[in-house]
Protein: SDR family oxidoreductase
Amino acid sequence: MGIIEKFRLNGKKAYVSGGARGIGKSIATALAEAGADVAIVDLDLVEAQKTAAEISERLGVKTLAIRTDVANPDDVNQMIEDILAGFGRIDIAFNNAGICINIPAAEMTLQQWQKVIDINLTGVFLTSQAAGKVMLRQGSGSIINTASMSAHIVNYPQPQASYNASKAGVVQLSKSLAIEWAKYGVRVNTISPGYIGTELTLQSPDLKPLIQQWESVSPLGRIGRPDELQAIAVYLAGDASPFTTGADFVVDGAFTAI
Ligand code: NAD
Structure:
């Protein structure tokens, strides 16, 4: 198989959590452009349906839209059943749903702490475990989890203790799963994006000064775009990366290299 062929995902079955918008939508689009059928998994069913329809109409692949709260084990089990009913297998699990709550640690309630950990870390555990069980039976599969450069550095000045802790957890969880499942043909990797301007962040007037500050300290002089994460996602998803597991890919325009 030639190198270009190895990047094709024709016939593969994927899902992307948090796939309705932002980074997840961009990744789902990339997987579909490479030929995969994609399930859009999100808390927001209406947006997920819009994204799924947009992708299938434009790219001619099969899509599903599934409402799931990744922090809820019953939802996650149902999601896996729905994907198997629609697609028959799972080759690519992209666990990307995540939230951030900016509150100083001294003022954070247990509920606020727990919400971020439940979605960002426990949600990645539940979805990786459920998809991983299917992949272990299949003897193959690629799990890709969205971490963050916040797994490696502490953002300043915004206070994000729970977010930073959750994303560091995602990296270590993913490495642990990669090692447990390596000999069964299931690969697990993380992508750690730097600041990425999504439709939502770019439109928010509250974030404008923060974005300007990030741009002023970024070595590239700008924040990233969701489409700049697409190539690494397609690489990790399929046959281009059989020897790549337990790895974390920082895509941050050298922000953490400063
Ligand atoms: P976003 O808020 O634009 O999109 C997140 C999506 O996840 C939304 O569609 C939302 O409905 C969904 N979601 C939220 N909670 C959910 C839950 N419990 N179950 C299922 N779906 C849920 O965010 P984004 O900027 O596209 O970020 C996506 C991922 O990338 C997150 O994990 C985030 O932490 C990470 N990340 C983002 C940046 C950035 O600068 N945008 C940088 C590093 C990492």
User: Anything to note?
Assistant: The radius of gyration is 17 Å.
